[in-house]
Amino acid sequence: MRLMLWTERRSFEVPIPMALKPALAGIPVGLCLIWIPEVTGIGVETMRSTLEGNVFGMGDLAVILIVKLVLTAVCVGFGLATGVFTPALVIGLLFGAFVGQGLGIVFGSGHSDLGIFAVCGAVAVASPVIGAPLSAILIVFELTRNYELTTAAMLSVVFANLVSYRIFGRSWFDRLLLNRGVDVSQGRDHLLLQSQSVAESMDSPLVTVLGSESLAEVLTQMDAQARNLAWVVDSQHVLTGTLRYEAIRLLLIDQPDAVDWPASQAAVSTSAVFTPETNLATAMQQVANQNQDWIAVVDGGQHRRFLGIISRAKIVTTYQATLDRIREEEQASA
Fold it and tell me: Where is the CBS domain (predicted)?
């Protein structure tokens, strides 16, 4: 799986149009069709020949295994239409047969049949790739109706998934989604919140003042709107800070002449801001570490113009509504 990710990263460095990159991967596929046809296609014939035990020697298995591994990584990385499930089965089966033949040479008789090693190798490689260990075990049992073989496959799947999780992480498909910003391990509620942006729940601030206005004018507007928080912007409508009603009153008690101060002089800068593209999952994580009831929403461009506000209560309410929606769907399906 790491090899497929590596070839995918290298493919972006090849200076040819994206539409031609699959054709570039087709070159080694065509060469393999001439010299090593066993590594091309779905691999049904290759698996059948491997399970027969007398078609491929250890050298043949090693060559086919390495070429199949590299060819699959190149095809996936360069976008040539292919999958990962059947190649993983073939690669695992070849590796299992290679190990089985090696043990046969070392120990002679008295070890398990080659087919057991091959099947265990196939499910051991395929199950971490697709992220379905139980399905792989059930497939073995459904196809063979053999409890002993299923038990052996179960052990190989368990150890393979433990090793894969330590080295690579989750399955190949989970990694692809994670590279695109979708983390399925966070649960359905997180995914639904990721699909909703702050812009959908944004409100307009009731009190917005220019930094050049005096504190007396700010108090007049806050009294008229019955609000205890004002948002201070400059002439370009860029947010410079906030003013609280109680803070202004305390300041005027200590310094009565401050009534003529410009709002920008007494404004308190705010570091917690969102952009319209910020999803509610990120917003929920940030408000958990903030003690602000209202968070500013600014333009994501260079000037970061003040666009609106969003309340902590609305974020929490949306999160609770998402949980209720998931619960209703689960109860309906049950």
Answer: 202-259
